[in-house]
Design goal:
It contains ten helices and 20 strands. The longest helix has 20 residues. With 428 residues, the protein is of the alpha/beta class. The structure holds 5'-O-[hydroxy(phenylacetyl)phosphoryl]adenosine (DLL).
Length: 428
């Protein structure tokens, strides 16, 4: 089922609409001093845009630009017309403040509703929304879409896990929206309270806001006996609802291209990459009023596919984001992506889907990578054999030998109850 006709539009019709909207966006952005300067420096203007591919002549917008223009330098409307702000807290410095007009909020509700329908959620569902409410876009973003769809929303927000479990059992919530790490935390917390997580009423989880790999998703689906659907988005562009997997195929995330124009670039050279090639996702908003963004470098690693999906939607699909360009760890000169470690570790049956990576600089000045993983509850096998097996698997997956691998008992690695999970600790 589709929420809107445009999801099945043919490419020519869609491109025409995109081009019109892109012109409007560039015009609107061009009135913001930041963009006016950037366009002038690049020697481009709206009139240079004859086809969609002319967008490549326009400059990128970066996270650093958001910080430099903090708090409202990128807004394209006066505060009088701002209906809401959200903010995304970075790891360093000031947060990125983002704004919405009334029309932007309507648009957000629509794209999230569209996403939820694609994900198999319907108006007859009781949906527990355990994304954090507040400045984070997860809670209120999903909430608006659920209301727009007409589902029964249970707005628990993040945390207070004992109450989440009680609420879902008492109210019979059949859909849960939360981060993948929180799904696992909730399953464990249910077990500790004597409930089999597979017996909870939840049938579908809508997970996002942080990267996860296929084995991690499989662990969630198995533990909670659910279907896990991946939802993607970021505050700078709108929040959740930029793209989502469809329930039918679960094969890539449909990008709502009539509102968000995706490109994938080589993060080193900035060159646009052809479909199928992996690189950094760049997004341009097509309909946002308060905060249009032009060629925003998301830092998220993915690739795009234009073939029609089995579900009948024609929109381009992006691959699941399992990492970010700045996740890349360089250990003794070798590139290491944490997602490769996750894939290698979580797929091992005896190991729980929790891990921690510590990076240190040794006395000899060389980088050291330390990995801590947990056994499944009640593990009674040979610890040292498991350790050796993991060491080989991970070293092979990474092309660099792990300096220290600790296998600890279930529950020893810190869990994240609220917000996004942190797994990499760089002490260098
Ligand atoms: O995390 C928006 C969101 C809320 C998405 C709820 C999905 C569900 P930010 O806090 O601005 O916004 O963080 C955005 O989170 O650039 C990605 O690096 C990461 N991210 C978001 N969704 C996914 C996903 C929200 N499905 C940043 N898979 C993005 C992997 C994701 N990473």
């Amino acid at each position: 089922m589709a929420y809107s006709e445009i999801e099945r539009a043919d490419r020519d019709e869609l491109s025409e609409r995109q081009l019109d909207r892109l012109r409007d966006t560039l015009e609107r952005a061009g009135e913001v001093p930041f963009y006016a300067r950037a366009f002038e420096e690049a020697g481009v203007g709206v009139d240079d845009l004859e086809t969609l591919s002319d967008l490549t002549a326009f400059p990128f917008t970066t996270k650093a630009d958001f910080r430099a223009e903090y708090p409202d330098g990128l807004f394209a409307v006066d505060w009088d017309d701002v209906a809401r702000v959200h903010a995304s807290s970075g790891t360093s410095g000031k947060p990125k403040v983002v704004s919405y007009t009334d029309a932007d909020l309507d648009l957000w509700g629509e794209v999230v509703a569209r996403s939820l329908v694609a994900a198999g959620v319907s108006e007859t569902d009781v949906v527990q929304n355990a994304y954090g409410y507040g400045l984070f876009t997860g809670g209120l973003g999903l909430h608006a879409g659920l209301e727009e769809l007409g589902a029964a929303v249970v707005p628990t927000g993040g945390g207070d896990t004992a109450r989440q479990i009680e609420t879902m059992r008492d109210l019979g919530s059949d859909v849960l929206c939360c981060t993948p790490s929180y799904c696992l935390y909730l399953a464990e917390a249910a077990e500790e309270r004597g409930h089999d997580p597979r017996d909870l009423p939840i049938e579908r989880v809508v997970i996002g806001a942080e990267p996860f790999t296929d084995p991690m998703r499989a662990a969630i689906e198995d533990r909670l006996d659910v279907t896990a659907v991946d939802i993607y988005g970021l505050s700078e562009v709108i929040g959740p609802g930029v793209s989502i997997e469809c329930a039918e195929a679960q094969d890539g995330l449909h990008v709502w291209e009539d509102h968000f124009l995706p490109e994938v670039i080589d993060p080193e050279t900035g060159e646009r990459l052809p479909p199928g090639e992996e690189g950094e996702l760049v997004l341009t908003t097509l309909t946002k009023e308060a905060l249009p963004v032009v060629r925003y470098r998301t830092g998220d690693v993915t690739s795009l596919r234009y073939e029609e999906c089995a579900c009948g939607r024609t929109s381009v699909r992006m691959d699941n984001v399992t990492g970010r360009t700045d996740d890349l760890l360089i250990v003794r000169g070798v590139n290491v992506y944490p997602s490769r470690i996750e894939e290698a570790v979580v797929a091992v049956d005896a190991v729980a889907p929790h891990y921690r990576i510590d990076l240190r600089r040794g006395d000899d000045g060389l980088d050291r990578i330390e990995l801590t993983v947990e056994t499944q509850p009640g593990f009674a096998g040979d610890l040292s054999a498991l350790r050796d097996r993991l060491h080989d698997r991970v070293s092979e997956a990474l092309n660099v030998s792990v300096d220290e691998l600790a296998v600890v008992e279930h529950g020893e690695i810190d869990r994240t109850e609220v917000g996004k999970v942190k797994r990499v600790y760089d002490h260098r």
